[in-house]
Each structure stands twice: as structure tokens, then as C-alpha cells.
Write a structure and sequence with these properties.
- By secondary structure, the protein is an alpha+beta fold.
- Helices cover about 45% and strands about 10% of the residues.
- Strands 1-2-3 form a 3-stranded antiparallel β-sheet.
- A hairpin with a 6-residue loop joins strand 2 and strand 3.
């Protein structure tokens, strides 16, 4: 009886049949794909470390390596309003942070009227996506260009700002060094993510982006997580000698 069952099994799964061989190979490929998908994050990280993928040169890398690593961060108690974005005139020119950044980052700037702080229109070469955006102020159009905190406010909170005074948080929230005019949808996609979870789709800007985050974190003595640091080093590995941007 057992011999008949074995014979039936061999007839039912005849590896000499080309169609059955293809089906078996497809099943094996699926199993291997799932296994690799589960293991790849751990394997790729170690492989990058062993092959020098996290080595980098330049002042950005040197500064990053001086930052404190803290893997016990949490966002409890975070309140975006505590950073007072657009509520401080840090340079004393009578304009809020959004208007200052629009005036700085857009070209062909037109103001609402002579002497006004309000930017009515302009052109943005968006660093995050590489797109050219024609900005026009309006209820349904202004959000096409948003002001991003390069080191997100929630990220800053988790990495040290929870212990700051109100004055220090408001200074950070309006610091031009940490602000960029960018594509609105890209800014929404980024949210509060660190470099470990989000990078600009414009690959040509990633080194500058990471270098600025490092500069901001150094300026305000903020920490990084291990995964955040690895992600930054992986980017800097592709641009030897990358410098931290000047704060001016």
C-alpha cells in the first residue's frame, strides 16, 4: 500500500515535467524572497559596516561623530506650539520666519505691496524634489510651498529640547539655519521623521540635507539615535569631504 502511495506521489510530482519544474522553482523563489526580505535589514546594516559603507570624511562626518547617541528617545509631552513658530522676529526686521524664508529661498520675488513683508509670488527650485514651483500667495495656493524645520520640531523635542526653556525652544523654532522653503507635499510626507526614515527624493540634495541636520544638531547640542547616525553616515559616504553649512 505504501509503495502504491509513493508511486502515485512520484507520478503526481514528476520533476521531468517542464511545467512542474517551473512551478517548483516559483515556489522556491517565493520562499527565498520572503526569507531574504525578513533578514535583509539586519544583514545589509552589518554588510555596510564591514565594507566601509558607514565611513565618511569632511566636517559634517567629524561633527556627527561628536554628537551624543541616545537610543531611548520618546516624544511624550511634545507640543509643537511650545516652539512658537512664526511668533518670534529673531532678526528684528519686522517680518515673521515664514516671510523671511520665502524671501530668502525664492527667486523673482514680488511683495504684496511696497515695503510689505508678505511675499506675493516667486519661484522655488525645490531642494527636496528637484521641481520648479511657481508660488502665488492665496488661500488655495500658498500651501504649495511650505517652510520645513530641517530637524523637525518633534525630533528636536525627543533629542534634547524637552529640557530647554521656553526662550530656547522659540529660538530654535524660528532659527533660519533650520528652516527651508520646500515643496508642500514633500514636507507633509517627511513629517517628524529623522534621516533614518526619510530623505529627499532629490538625490543630489541628500548630502547637503544631512549636513544641515548635523549642523543644527551640533548648534543646539541635540542627540542622534544609532539608526539615524548610520543613515547619515551612509549618505555622507557618497560625498567625501562634505562640509557643515555655515550659519549665517
Amino acid at each position: 500500500m505504501a509503495r502504491r502511495r509513493n508511486a502515485h506521489f512520484r507520478r503526481g510530482f514528476n520533476a521531468s515535467n517542464p511545467l512542474e519544474r517551473v512551478l517548483i522553482l516559483l515556489v522556491l523563489a517565493a520562499v527565498i524572497g520572503v526569507t531574504v526580505g525578513l533578514m535583509l535589514p539586519q544583514v545589509s546594516s552589518e554588510a555596510a559596516r564591514m565594507t566601509g559603507g558607514y565611513t565618511a570624511t569632511g566636517s559634517a562626518a567629524d561633527t556627527l561623530n561628536r554628537l551624543i547617541v541616545d537610543d531611548n528617545q520618546n516624544a511624550s509631552g511634545y507640543d509643537r506650539d511650545s516652539f512658537g513658530f512664526r511668533e518670534e522676529d529673531t532678526d528684528g526686521n519686522g517680518c515673521d520666519a515664514r516671510e523671511d524664508v520665502l524671501a530668502r529661498d525664492l527667486t523673482d520675488v514680488q511683495y504684496k505691496y511696497a515695503g510689505s513683508c508678505e511675499v506675493a509670488s516667486g519661484t522655488l527650485d525645490d531642494p527636496y524634489t528637484g521641481k520648479t514651483i511657481h508660488f502665488v500667495r492665496g488661500r488655495t495656493t500658498s500651501a504649495k510651498v511650505q517652510i520645513d524645520h530641517v530637524v523637525a520640531l518633534e525630533n528636536a523635542w525627543q533629542s534634547g529640547a524637552r529640557d530647554w526653556s521656553t526662550v530656547e525652544r522659540r529660538q530654535f523654532g524660528n532659527d533660519q539655519y533650520n528652516l527651508l522653503a520646500v515643496d508642500g507635499p514633500a514636507n507633509q510626507e517627511k513629517g517628524s521623521a529623522s534621516a533614518a526614515y526619510w530623505l529627499p527624493t532629490n538625490g543630489d540634495y541628500r548630502c547637503d540635507y544631512v549636513a544641515r541636520q548635523i549642523g543644527v544638531k551640533d548648534k543646539y547640542h541635540l542627540t542622534v539615535t544609532s539608526s539615524e547616525k548610520d543613515a547619515m553616515l551612509a549618505v555622507l559616504h557618497t560625498c567625501p569631504g562634505q562640509a557643515v553649512p555655515d550659519d549665517n
